[in-house]
Amino acid sequence: MRVLEVSDLVAGYGKVAVINGISFAVDPGQIVGVVGPNGAGKTTLVRAVMGYLRPWRGKVIYLGNDVTHHPAYVRARLGIGYVPERGGVLRSLTVRENIDLAISMSRRGRDRIKEVTKVFRIVEERRDQLARTLSGGEQRMLAIAMALLMADKLIVMDEPSAGLAPIMRRKLVEVVKWISKELGVSLLITEQDPTVVLETADTVHVMEMGTIVKSGRARDIIKPEALREHYLGM
Ligand code: ATP
Prior knowledge:
Blueprint: E1 4-13, E2 16-26, E3 31-35, H1 42-50, E4 57-62, E5 65-66, H2 72-78, E6 80-83, H3 95-104, H4 109-119, H5 122-125, H6 136-150, E7 154-158, H7 166-183, E8 186-191, H8 195-200, E9 203-208, E10 211-217, H9 218-221, H10 224-232
Parallel strand pairs: 3-8, 3-9, 6-7, 7-8
Antiparallel strand pairs: 1-2, 1-4, 4-5, 9-10
Bound molecules: adenosine-5'-triphosphate (ATP).
């Protein structure tokens, strides 16, 4: 059974459609990347998939269940983990309190906490520190650890590498690979910068102005020229 099937999804704000007939699927253990420039509609797509924005048309099917019109909390309860573009942690709580909250909200958390603690060192090393005093990259890692404790078969990450220093970006690549390989959890990752997706994703969709314009294996889709263009504007 497919983990996620999105078909002909249309959504937007006011009268303006921002995503216009998006279709793709995520299979068990697969990492799917959606890359595209600023304003392409990646966050809008993620919000429609997660239930924070009501689709105008189309379907979102998670593990065979039609969740298109289910509110976000139902999708979370069904086991879709979410790492939003910003936030995702409770800043006025300690690291440990954030983690405990994630565990209390899921069926999986208790089974996974040992493995999660091994990979996300801050869970132990910074347990009593307030989340708001962690660096941006550390907060991102805490948000990913929490999503992982709550997720069943899928985690959706919206631009996880945005604002991360190169060393944290390396760590993110390792963590994403580990989640898929060792835990068998699938990932849907949107990114403006294609590097993390290139190093992790099995399948990539390129999004422009609300539609998917190209799809394929990461290596075929993201050419070195595109990376050069991205970094040097050449
Ligand atoms: P980025 O990489 O910059 O985060 P993105 O691909 O995630 O971009 P979206 O954030 O989905 O793009 O935005 C797509 C379009 O929708 C943009 O033109 C944006 O201005 C518009 N938009 C986003 N949020 C809203 C909103 N709440 N109300 C009205 N328009 C919005």
